[in-house]
């Protein structure tokens, strides 16, 4: 390469350094003709120095303000900025201006439909959280109202969900017994909900939503599937009326409780001729024959929901969109039929477990019930952070799914602020953690919702239910609620996704299975910990063990690619070309150096031997070309590794050549004087330029 003082945009020619004099016109003309016929080699010069403050500002903006949320406020008068600020905080003020009666019709139908689905689900989910049934309904009244004003999703339906309810219940009961200390348990639940909201709102306000992306899709699939199995197993208590049931959630403890209850009394049929017709668990509870009818009706509903939602997952519900109301209203119909059946037969007197009393009235204030000091404050904070992150991950994933189906943009940070605010207010109005529900959101989408007004309609119906209808749920059997919960969580087990993970990435499959078995055989918390741990392990493995590839020339082109991917690629005699497929940091710099030069672990030495054996009649390898196109960044440890690699290769009389370093990498190479050590004439724009310089015959072939 030419003079180091030449500008970056300057190009040189191979063999263009022929001396020219004024007296030798003929030689000058000849030389100029030869130079004009040679290809250009672009010079990679020293880039212009960047302003430090500007560089820091750019980095912070790319990290936290990549979508430039302040752009609409630029060059606007103060009043307009105030209006835009309120519209940013409350999106309903923006889209509400264009709201019409036609849109309200779709929202009204969708809101009524999801209300029919959420009411029986909420009662069942409250039991998962070890809360009284009314708290599930409370959580579908206030939070959806808040979200309708602050959320940016048009389709998401807000309320309690199975996974978060199970997680919250299992973590809370590890601290306080929900039976003997009911008041303290509920207070801790409200405290955890408060801190869940604080966590969500903080992540959104400081634009730290990227943190939830550390929980990989594979880990989420496994965690959700394991939670679905665990929730299903927990419903055996309600289905069989077992009174003495384990507080643990793992499959071994649950099955031990069921088998123990059966074998202690040998689960015998007591007096078939008797009208009572009871399957007796002397140490565990009773299963009445009168629960068979509710259970069969719920089983039909399970199959119905399973078919509908599997159809939706495959074709977004296009085939059965007109029949969206069938699976949505099925749970409520099942509850009505089962409740009527129990009431007229008074099966509750014969041992059939029922819901009993549900407190009437809308949400009472719970501000004074939150622990703001004492020993339970830290426990509530810990539980709230975990539950808040899981709820946030589920809601954002659901919101993005339906936003992509309707082709509109979802602001993840606004969603976090909205979800956090609704849970903070919810904790002060006797609600526990609420988030987006996939089953309800799917029904909301298929019912033709247009805006978040469908949540307001649902919330209004739930309010009327709390004020008027709750006494009618007194005789609802627990078995029907258990079946409704089972039907709701069946869709969480995504077999297709697991098969796809196996086909695409075995490590992702391992992460999925680790999270799944952690939840099923240990606990929800352990499964979550395994999911996060495996996700981080994958990131660390990819960062600390980056891939390197041996490159060869694609015939009849000047393109160099991985010889394993393109077997026809030709290796260059006397030149070894390696590509590093990662940034070079302290965590992987030694590994890269060892992969390239260290004798004990040295793959390059094996490559060198292979090269010399393959090209016995050719010169030995004299040049190592490192393609740095994928190297997005390099730190001081990476710089030291390059310097050590250069020195090691010098001892072997092999020259180190770098190609296509990015601006950030090039800045640091020059700032550390590593570029001078390697030689600025050994830094090229492309691999083809480097080969053209040191092996021109091969490049021109």
Mind sketching the topology for me?
Blueprint: E1 11-13, H1 25-36, E2 40-42, H2 52-64, H3 78-89, H4 92-95, H5 101-128, H6 133-138, H7 142-150, E3 157-159, H8 162-173, H9 182-205, H10 217-234, H11 236-240, H12 251-265, E4 268-270, E5 278-281, E6 285-288, H13 292-315, H14 325-345, H15 375-406, H16 412-427, E7 435-437, H17 438-446, H18 453-469, H19 478-489, H20 495-504, H21 506-521, H22 524-544, E8 548-553, E9 560-562, E10 575-580, H23 589-596, H24 603-614, E11 623-627, H25 636-651, E12 655-659, H26 663-671, H27 674-678, E13 683-684, H28 687-694, H29 696-699
Parallel strand pairs: 10-11, 11-12, 12-13
Antiparallel strand pairs: 1-2, 3-7, 4-5, 5-6, 8-9, 8-10
Helix pairs in contact: 5-8, 5-14, 5-17, 5-18, 5-19, 7-16, 7-18, 8-15, 9-15, 9-16, 10-19, 10-21, 10-22, 13-14, 13-19, 15-16, 15-17, 20-21, 21-22, 23-25
Which short descriptors sum up this protein?
701 residues; 7% strand; disordered N terminus; membrane; transmembrane helix; STAS domain-containing protein; transport
Q: Write down the overall mean pLDDT.
A: 80
Q: Give the CA-based shape.
A: elongated
The number of helices is 29
Quantity of strands, as a count: 13
> How far do the termini sit from each other?
22 Å
Approximately what portion of the residues adopt beta-strand conformation?
A: 5-15%
Q: Determine the fraction of residues in helical runs and give it as a percent range.
A: 55-70%
As laid out across the biggest beta sheet, the strand order is 9-8-10-11-12-13
What are the segments in which pLDDT stays under 50 over at least 5 consecutive residues?
1-26, 28-35, 265-276, 278-287, 312-319, 598-602
Radius of gyration: 33 Å
């Amino acid at each position: 390469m030419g003079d180091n003082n030449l500008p970056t945009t300057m190009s040189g020619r191979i063999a263009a350094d022929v001396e020219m004099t004024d007296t030798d016109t003929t030689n000058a003309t000849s030389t100029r003709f030869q130079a004009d016929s040679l290809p250009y080699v672009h010079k990679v010069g020293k880039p212009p120095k960047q302003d430090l403050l500007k560089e820091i500002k750019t980095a912070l903006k790319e990290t936290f303000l990549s979508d430039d949320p302040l752009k609409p406020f630029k060059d606007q008068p103060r009043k307009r900025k105030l209006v835009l600020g309120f519209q940013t905080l409350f999106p309903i003020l923006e889209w509400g201006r264009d709201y019409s009666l036609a849109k309200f019709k779709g929202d009204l139908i969708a809101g009524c439909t999801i209300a029919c689905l959420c009411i029986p689900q909420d009662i069942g989910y409250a039991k998962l959280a070890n809360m009284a049934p009314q708290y599930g309904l409370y959580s579908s009244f206030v939070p959806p109202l808040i979200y309708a004003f602050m959320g940016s999703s048009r389709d998401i339906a807000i309320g309690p969900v199975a996974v978060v309810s199970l997680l919250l219940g299992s973590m809370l009961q590890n601290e306080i017994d929900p039976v003997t200390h009911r008041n303290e348990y509920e207070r801790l639940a409200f405290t955890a909900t408060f801190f869940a909201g604080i966590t969500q709102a903080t992540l959104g306000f400081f634009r730290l939503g990227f943190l939830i992306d550390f929980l990989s899709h594979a880990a989420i699939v496994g965690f959700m599937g394991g939670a679905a199995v665990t929730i299903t197993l927990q419903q055996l208590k309600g289905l069989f009326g077992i009174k003495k049931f384990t507080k643990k959630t793992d499959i071994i403890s649950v099955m031990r409780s069921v088998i123990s209850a059966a074998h202690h009394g040998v689960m015998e049929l007591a007096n078939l001729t008797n009208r009572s017709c009871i399957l007796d668990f002397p140490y565990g509870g009773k299963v009445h024959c009168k629960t068979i009818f509710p259970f069969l009706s719920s089983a039909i509903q399970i199959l119905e929901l399973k078919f509908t939602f599997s159809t939706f997952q495959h074709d977004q519900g296009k085939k059965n969109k007109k029949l969206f109301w069938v699976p949505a209203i099925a749970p409520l119909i099942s509850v009505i039929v089962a409740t009527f059946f129990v009431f007229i037969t008074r099966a509750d007197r014969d041992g059939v477990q029922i819901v009993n009393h549900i407190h009437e009235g809308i949400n009472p204030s719970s501000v004074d019930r939150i622990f703001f000091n004492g020993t339970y404050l830290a426990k509530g904070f810990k539980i709230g952070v975990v539950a808040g992150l899981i709820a946030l991950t589920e809601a954002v994933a659901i919101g993005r799914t339906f936003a992509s189906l309707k082709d509109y943009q979802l602001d993840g940070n606004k969603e976090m602020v909205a979800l956090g605010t609704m849970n903070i207010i919810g904790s002060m109005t006797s609600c526990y953690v609420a988030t987006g529900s996939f089953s309800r959101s799917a029904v909301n989408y298929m019912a033709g919702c247009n805006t978040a007004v469908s949540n307001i309609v649902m919330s209004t119906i739930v309010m009327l239910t709390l004020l008027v209808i709750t006494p009618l749920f007194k005789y609802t059997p627990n078995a029907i609620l258990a079946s409704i919960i089972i039907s709701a969580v069946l869709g969480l087990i995504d077999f297709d996704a697991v098969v796809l993970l196996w086909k695409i990435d075995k490590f992702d499959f391992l992460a999925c299975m680790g999270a799944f078995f952690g939840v099923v055989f240990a606990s929800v918390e352990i499964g979550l910990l395994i999911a996060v741990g495996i996700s981080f392990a994958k990131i660390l493995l990819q960062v600390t063990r980056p891939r390197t590839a041996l490159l060869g020339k694609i015939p009849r082109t000047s393109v160099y690619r991985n010889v394993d991917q393109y077997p026809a690629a030709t290796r260059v005699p006397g030149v070894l070309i390696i590509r590093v497929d990662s940034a070079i940091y302290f965590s992987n710099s030694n590994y890269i150096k060892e992969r390239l030069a260290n004798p004990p672990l040295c793959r390059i030495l094996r490559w060198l031997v292979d090269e010399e054996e393959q090209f016995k009649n050719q010169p030995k390898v004299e040049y190592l070309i490192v393609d740095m196109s994928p190297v997005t960044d390099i730190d001081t440890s990476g710089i030291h590794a390059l310097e050590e690699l250069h020195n090691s290769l010098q001892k072997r009389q092999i020259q180190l050549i770098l190609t296509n370093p990015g601006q950030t990498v090039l800045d640091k190479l020059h700032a550390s004087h590593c570029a001078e050590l390697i030689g600025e004439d050994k830094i090229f724009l492309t691999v083809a330029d480097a080969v053209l310089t040191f092996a021109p015959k091969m490049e021109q072939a």
